[in-house]
Amino acid sequence: MADRVIEVATTPFLCQKPGTSGLRKTVSVFRQPHYVENFVQSVFDVLDGLAGQTLVVGGDGRFYNQEAIQVILRMAAANGVGRVLVGRDGLLSTPAASCVIRRHGAYGGLILSASHNPGGPAGDFGIKYNIGNGGPAPERVTEAMFARSRELTQYRILEDETPVDLSRDGDTQLGAMRVSVIDPVADYAELMETLFDMEAIAGLFRDGFTMRFDAMHAITGPYAHAILEKRLGAPAGTVVNGTPLKDFGGGHPDPNLTYAHDLAELMFGPDAPDFGAASDGDGDRNMILGRGVFVTPSDSLAVLLANAELLPGYRGRVKGVARSMPTSRAADRVAEAMGLPCYETPTGWKFFGTLLDAGRATLCGEESFGTGSDHVREKDGLWAVLAWLNILAQRGETVAGILTGHWRQFGRTYYTRHDYEGLDKAPADALMADLRGRSLVGEVFAGQRVVLHDDFAYTDPVDGSTSSGQGIRVQTEDGSRLVVRLSGTGTQGATLRLYMERFEPNPEHHHHDAQDALADLIAATRSLLALKARFGAEDPTVIT
Ligand code: G6P
Ligand code: ZN
């Protein structure tokens, strides 16, 4: 029988612990027999009342996406799920998946992605579960999945392995479950219509405004083609690398100055268009550039907040802003001027969920190229691009003009992040332990007296949950700050991240390169941390 459910005996994998963004491992790990099945069964087993419910399934199109989706569909049917909404060809960007979950009142969703990590047979893959509000499952849920995965003895799946045709929209039956193949762009594009002044943006392009959007061969291609070119009338060719490839063309789909170097080169060269932007593997990150200017994600959040009244979906309803701790304090200054609360959370978009649900924060952002709002429960790359376009259209200024005007009004926070990738774990852990074990308060650092040295801890003001050990903060009396933490998203070794910033109120000093403006802080940090002695090298692998 085509819809016969079988129970397959299995032994647990002990390493299926979801991290910052779901279960993320190399493809070779995921391809082990039963690996996907075990994890998916562990997810289903901890979801109460799943029977008869609707789930959303889709991914960023990377290698193994299609295979994993077919397994998930056969397991969902065998576990009593009523209906699955799946993006055509198995595609859904992360923010679009969040949007579809919310709009269709789904029980939750499975997103297949490893975000900005490289794809292909030698790259990474991932599975993430999002709950009914459209956001990543909170830690107590992922912990329960992990616990379940360690004791699993069998999983349920349909016996018949005939793949479901995902290439055409419409409904099919899989066992007792309905599979609805949907346009991956439509719901998301409709939501964007309600937030932004699309006519004003279309007017920009009619008037000859030029732009390049680099989809980096990843998931935002179809969304950007549909919204920027078809809907808003940007000339064909505005979107480049717009066809999702399984291996992202061999690239590293992370929108920063290092990995989106072609775009960066264009924007700082003689033929730069008015506006440049890029997104990552699964479409939740963004990078914003103007002609000859890069907007740091921290500044981008501050500018969006300061200009939110120009955006139809946000006019008169911004309740507050939230940023992750290592993100610069540029947005804090805007919030203060606007009389709005500004929340400082640990790194990870999931920490914004409670604030967004409670209506305490409306806009959120992270230094790691994430910006978004309460329209979904993920960060959203194209949303940020449309927000900037809307502001550019309303103000009739260049990106550089908006940025310098912003700094003049609120002061400039010089900011840089230096990453040291591929370090050995032991000396990296030792560095963190050393920093935790001493206090620099009262000492002089980069020519200034240290007034704060702590390890960031957070109590969620909505649900009271606590998180500690979130990163070392060293602050001096002139308001300069160093943050030191280890990445929580890498799949190999350790990555050390150093975040440095300094506030500059005087407009006469606003036009320096951030590396120059922060040179003394950078040097003081390297010697404080004894990077050379510990790791043999002093220069970072990536600067953002
Ligand atoms: C992912 C998360 C973000 C987080 C980023 C950096 O993109 O969704 O919320 O800021 O990773 O994390 P890391 O621990 O590597 O600095
Ligand atoms: Zn991402």
UniProtKB/TrEMBL annotation:
Keywords: Isomerase, Magnesium, Metal-binding, Phosphoprotein. The keyword Cytoplasm does not apply. Its EC number is 5.4.2.2. It comes from the Bacteria. It is an enzyme of class 5 (isomerase). One of its GO terms (cellular component) is cytosol. The keyword Phosphoprotein applies. Coiled coil: none annotated. One of its GO terms (biological process) is carbohydrate metabolic process. Its cofactor is Mg(2+). It catalyses: alpha-D-glucose 1-phosphate = alpha-D-glucose 6-phosphate. One of its GO terms (molecular function) is magnesium ion binding. Residues 16-154, 187-289, 298-410 form the Alpha-D-phosphohexomutase alpha/beta/alpha domain. Pfam families: PGM1_C_vert_fung (PF24947), PGM_PMM_I (PF02878), PGM_PMM_II (PF02879), PGM_PMM_III (PF02880). Belongs to the phosphohexose mutase family. NCBIfam families: PRK07564.1-1. This is phosphoglucomutase (alpha-D-glucose-1,6-bisphosphate-dependent). The lineage of its organism: Bacteria, Pseudomonadati, Pseudomonadota, Alphaproteobacteria, Rhodospirillales.
